[in-house]
Amino acid sequence: MSLNTTLEAKQSWKEVINTVKSLDPKKLEIIKATLPVVKEHGEAITKQFYKRMFKQHPELKNIFNMAHQITGHQPKALADAVYGAAANIEDFSQIMPVLERIGEKHRSLQIKPEHYPIVGENLLGAIKEVLGDAATDDIMNAWADAYGVIADVFIRMEDKMYRTTESQPGGWAGFRDFVVDKKVKESEVITSFYLKPKDGEQIAKFIPGQYLTVKMDKMSGEQYTNLRQYSLSDRPGLDYYRISVKREDSRKEGIPDGVVSNYLHNHVNEGDIIPISAPAGDFYLNMDSSLPLVLIGGGVGLTPMMCMLNTTVNENPNRTVYYIHAAINSNMHAFKDHVNGLAAEHKNVKSFVIYEKPTETDHEMKNYDKEGFFTLEWLQSILPSNDADFYFCGPSPFMKVVNQSLKQWNVPEEQIHYEFFGSFGNLDEY
C-alpha cells in the first residue's frame, strides 16, 4: 500500500479497536487468573493445536509455512500471539503495532473470516488436552469468549485492509499473475526476480520496507501450495516489483533446504508466471524525516535496505544516508557494485562493509571496512552522532546485537526500526 493508503487504514483500525465488544467481567477475571498457566504451557498448546488442525483440515497446509512447523518457529509465534492478545484484551490499543503486523500478514496470506472458527475450535481443544482436568468448564467458556473477542477484532481489521488494498490505484484482490521479466544472479546465494503484471495493467504502490507474498502451487514433489513473503528490493513507482531471494540451504540436521527459495533459484526462469498478493507489511521507511538515515543489513536482510536506499536517492537526494552491510565475504555480498556506484555518484551516500570471513582476494583488494562482526565501538567510529533514524534487518542474532548496541548508545526508541519475523515477540526477548 502507498503511505496515504496505509495511514487511512491505520485510522480505520483504530476505529475498530474503539468499538470492540468487551468481555464479561467474571470471565475477564478468569482469563487474568489463568494467563500464567497458559503462558507456561503456551508452546505445548500451540503444537497440539497445529497437530489437531492439520489432521482435521489438511487443506490449511496450503496457507501455513510447514517449514516453520519443523523449526518450531510457528508454534512459538502463535503462543506469543495468544498470550499477548489475551493479556491486553481490556485495551487492544496498547498493542496496536502488533495487531497491525499480524493483520498485514493475514491479509497478504489471504486469511478470511471462515478460517477463524476452525482456528478457535482447535485452539480451545488443544488447551483442554494440554491442561487436562485443570481446564474446567468455566475456564473453557471464558477462553472461548475471549477468543471470540480477539477473532472479531482481527476479522473487522482485516476486512478494512482487504477493501483498502483492493480499492487503491493498481490494487487487486487475492493473488494476481506476474511474469518473471528478468532473473539476475546477485551473489552466490541471492538471485533477483523482476516481476511485471501479466495483464499489463497498473500495479499498486508500496512503502519501502514492505514485502510481497508469492504463491507456488505446482512445485514438483509438493502436495500443497507454498506461500512465502519476500521483501521488495527496489523502489516504488516503477513498472515492476523486484524481490531478491536467498537460496536457503540446510545447515542443521533435520532442517530441510528452503523449498520455495530453492525452487525459485533452480526452476523459475524468465517468462514464467508467479501469482502474488498486493504489497503488505508494517516495517517501512519514514519518508518525512529529515534526520540522517542509517541502513544496516545482515545477509539477505539487505533487501528492504536496498529498497529504502534506492528510494531515498531518488526522492530525497539531499538526505544523508549511511549504508552498512554485513556479509560472510564478497562472494555472498549482493548489490555491492550498485551501492558503490551510488556512493560514488552521490556525496550524501556513504557505504560501509563488514566481512565476517574475507577471502584472500578480499584481503588483497581491501574491499571491506571491518573484519569480523558488527560492534557498537565500530559503529560509533563511522557515525558523527546517534541522532539518526536507524533501520536494520537480518538474522536474529545479528539484529539482537544491533538493537542492544543502539540502546546502549541511547538512541531514542522512536528512531529504532527493524523487521522482526515474529508475532508478539521482540528482539529484547531473544
TrEMBL record:
The keyword Transport applies. Its cofactor is FAD; heme b. It is an enzyme of class 1 (oxidoreductase). Residues 170-430 are annotated as: Reductase. The record marks 105, 419 as: Influences the redox potential of the prosthetic heme and FAD groups. GO terms for biological process: cellular response to nitrosative stress; nitric oxide catabolic process; response to toxic substance. Heme b binds at residue 106. Residues 173-286 form the FAD-binding FR-type domain. Keywords: Detoxification, FAD, Flavoprotein, Heme, Iron, Metal-binding, NAD, NADP, Oxidoreductase, Oxygen transport, Transport. Consists of two distinct domains; an N-terminal heme-containing oxygen-binding domain and a C-terminal reductase domain with binding sites for FAD and NAD(P)H. This is Flavohemoprotein. The lineage of its organism: Bacteria, Bacillati, Bacillota, Bacilli, Bacillales.
